[in-house]
Amino acid sequence: MNSFALPDDAEKIMLQAVALAEQGKGRTAPNPCVGAVLTRDGRIVAQGHHRGPGLPHAEVEVLQDAALQGIDPKECILWVTLEPCNHTGRTPPCTQAILQAGIRRVVVGTADPNPRVIGGGIAHLRDSGVQVVAGVAEQDCRDLIADFRTWIDSPLPYLYLKLACTLDGRIATRSGDSQWISNAQSREKVHALRSRVGAVMVGAGTFRADDPRLTCRLSEADRPPDQVTNQRTQPLAIVVGSKLPDPAANFYLLRERPGETIFWTTEAASQSPAAERLCALGVRVWGAGSGDHVDLEACLTRLRSELGVMDVLCEGGGGLAQHVIAAGLVGEWWLFLASKTLGDVRAVPLLSGAEVPRMADAWSWRTSWVRELDGDLMLGLRPEPTPPHDNDVPGGRSECSPA
Question: Known catalytic residues?
Answer without folding.
Answer: 59
